[in-house]
Amino acid sequence: MLKLLKDVGELEFIRYIARQIEGKGTALKGIGDDAAVVSINADYVMLFTADMLVEGVHFLRTQRACSIGHKAISCSLSDIAAMGATPKYALITLGLPKKLNFLFAKNIFRGILKTAKFFNVEIIGGDTVCSEKIIIDVFVCGTAKQQNVILRSGAKYGDCIFVTGSLGNSQKTKHLHFTPRVEEANFLTRNFKLNAMIDVSDGLICDLNHILKASKVGALLEESKIPLSKNCFLNDAYYTGEEFELLFTLPEKYSQQLISKWPFKRQVRLSCIGRIMPQKFGLKIKNKKGIPKKNKIYGYNHF
Amino acid sequence: MLKLLKDVGELEFIRYIARQIEGKGTALKGIGDDAAVVSINADYVMLFTADMLVEGVHFLRTQRACSIGHKAISCSLSDIAAMGATPKYALITLGLPKKLNFLFAKNIFRGILKTAKFFNVEIIGGDTVCSEKIIIDVFVCGTAKQQNVILRSGAKYGDCIFVTGSLGNSQKTKHLHFTPRVEEANFLTRNFKLNAMIDVSDGLICDLNHILKASKVGALLEESKIPLSKNCFLNDAYYTGEEFELLFTLPEKYSQQLISKWPFKRQVRLSCIGRIMPQKFGLKIKNKKGIPKKNKIYGYNHF
Fold first, then answer.
1. Residues contacting A294, CB < 8 A, separation 6+
2. Per-residue pLDDT at A170
3. DSSP string, B209-265
4. How many pairs of residues across A and B have Cβ atoms under 8 Å apart?
5. A214 close contact with B: CB closer than 8 A
6. How far apart are CA A16 and CA A11, in angstroms?
7. Quick check: helix, strand or coil at residue B168?
């Protein structure tokens, strides 16, 4: 029987791709983190990431064109930030319907450009094609000192688990208006030696699980420490994707110092939500009565 | 009155984008050539390009999945080659319908991977999303010595104009099965100092005109020298896009040497099709009676 993509799911397809390209290449990090990492000289690396938004899936044509553009580039900026790197250049590929209002197309680009300029990112190329739905694919290239790059795979038993901002509100408004945590990531890598980092794009539990798998560790979260957005429930905070907050781990001994030095207090919360545990512990969440329980692990599946 | 994209056309939209991002950045070359160029150290540069293919526009679902994948990456490889650079890394972004046959999706990727491997290009990342039509956006990163990069803007009065391969057949079969001229470009930059180069993606006349405008020169082509594909007419050779041949200019004094040294004679023709002229000459074509005439300049418009 013919299998369809929706029968196998997105993860299975990505696993197929990853298996096909396994083996040693010259890249320091290929598929399997927020961005790919390539060495450019003895000290520095370049990082590459691409994120595609499709009308009807990630945004609607009834939404503001500027906000759509902002979201498109911010997803990629968030990926670069989550690697501890600084975004530098962007290529923008646009698929646009012939009958799209010219002003709407211009405003999508304006939204992209405004956010690019805010973060000192240069738009240096791209492609424009005709398509029935609006498609925006943003490729971003960043740079970092090799020693400052933070992968998903470095979390260690005993680390504190931190998350920026508050969670659960993404599906309502945040997913179009979030600020990629470029400045926060910059502060973190300049002042602390993080062990692992990811951005929350699939959902807190799902993305934490990416860190746990890559680092071969477990985790214990505390329900009472989860930073909930206004009018949101715990399950929203656990499973809502497109939050684009930073989720990272840091050795416990630096944890107090980080909290006291955090310079973004007024705009962006910083919460220690749990601890890294040995792998066999798995992923558990302590409820308000102090009892650790296993939680379902799932994230957004495109197919 | 509201203007639609199809009323203003693709070029006008790209001109709008180019105006928005004008001004000096740190990139050596931004929008306006086959790829963007960024300095990575005193001698070397990195080049970036992205090309998006959309089902129904660039290919049909009835065509072979492997060939579609091959075409998708080859367009970007051709862009890097046309800059005189070597492609190194690729990111693949796929928009796929939920109800797409899993095997078809796998075969698209296999087609991409096979061609990537043939040219020693590593696939290091990308994105997968759900969309109604199949969308493939390939970003390729290449490297070159800065002094070897060939822009569109270097053509000089007196240069010979060369084109690889034969022209006119693209719409029939070639556009799915062409070989990006990576090896040929590599040979050219290692052995000669080309003044300008582009790949024929919009059509011979249209792409030559890109060189003429960027270089502020004119050109005289010779009808009798145009390398026609089998069963093709001159107008096919002039205006068919997606040929992905190299079109370049070289000082006349090296022209004989190039023709005699060309190591690909058996597989890939090399034709001197005309001369670069002063800008005020414009673009003319000498017909078989030896009379130079102006030709219409147009290329593919997506909207």
1. A282, A283, A284, A285
2. 76
3. HHHHHHHTEEEEEEGGG--BPTT--HHHHHH------EEEEE-GGGHHHHHHH-TTT
4. 236
5. no
6. 9
7. coil
Contact A200, A167 (CB under 8 A): yes
Residues 6 or more apart whose CB falls under 8 angstroms from that of B103 comprise: A2, A3, B65
In chain B, residues with a C-beta closer than 8 Å to the C-beta of A46 are 40, 46
Strand, helix or coil for residue B99: coil
The angle formed by the CA atoms of residues A17, A20 and A26, to the nearest 5 degrees, is: 105
pLDDT band at A1 (very low <50, low <70, confident <90, very high): low
The rounded distance, in Å, linking the Cα atoms of A232 and A236 is: 6
- Cβ contacts of A93 within 8 Å, gap of 6 or more: A126, A127, A128, A129, A135, A136, A137, A138, A139, B50, B51, B52, B137
Q: How confident is the model at residue A279 (pLDDT cuts 50, 70, 90)?
A: very high
**Strand A246-250 relative to strand A196-199, pairing:** antiparallel
Q: Count CA atoms within 13 Å of residue B275 on its CB side.
A: 9
Q: Which candidate, B220, B240, B221, places its Cα nearest to that of B167?
A: B240
d(CA B11, CA B300): 10
Report residue B1's pLDDT band, with 50, 70 and 90 as the boundaries.
Answer: low
Q: How far is the alpha carbon of B125 from chain A, nearest alpha carbon, in Å?
A: 5
Q: How far apart are CA B7 and CA A301, in angstroms?
A: 38
Q: Which two tokens stand for residue A208?
A: 């934490």
Domains and CATH numbers, chain B: 34-147 (3.30.1330.10), 151-294 (3.90.650.10)
Closest CB to A25 among B26, B122, B135: B122
Angle (nearest 5°) at CA A33 between A31 and A37: 75
A54, B95: Cβ pair inside 8 Å? yes
Listed by number, the residues of chain B in 93-152 with a beta carbon closer than 8 Å to a beta carbon of chain A are: 93, 95-103, 105-106, 109-110, 113, 122-133, 135, 137, 139, 141
Quickly state the pLDDT bin for A278 (edges 50, 70, 90).
very high
Q: Say which residues have a Cβ less than 8 Å from residue A110's Cβ, sequence separation at least 6.
A: A65, A66, A69, B20
Residues whose CB falls within 8 Å of the CB of residue A243, separated by 6 or more in sequence, listed in order: A165, A167, A170, A174, A178, A200, A201, A203, A204
Give me A95's structure tokens. 């698929």
Whether the predicted interface score ipTM is above 0.90: yes
A139 contacts in chain B (CB < 8 Å): 48, 50, 91, 139
Mutate to test the interface with B, among A131, A136, A138, A141 (most CBs of B within 10 A): A131
* Residue B299 in this model has a pLDDT that exceeds 90: no
**pLDDT tens, B154-164?**
999 999 999 99
With cut-offs at 50, 70 and 90, classify the pLDDT of residue A22: confident
Contact A13 B102 (CB under 8 A): yes
Residues A170 and A242: their CA atoms lie apart, in Å, by 6
DSSP designation for B159: P
User: CA-based angle A123:A125:A130, to the nearest 5?
Assistant: 115
B48/A139 Cβ within 8 A: yes
**pLDDT averaged over every residue in chain B:** 93
Q: What is the pLDDT of residue B209?
A: 96
Residue in B91, B128, B184 with CA at minimum distance from that of residue A29:
B91
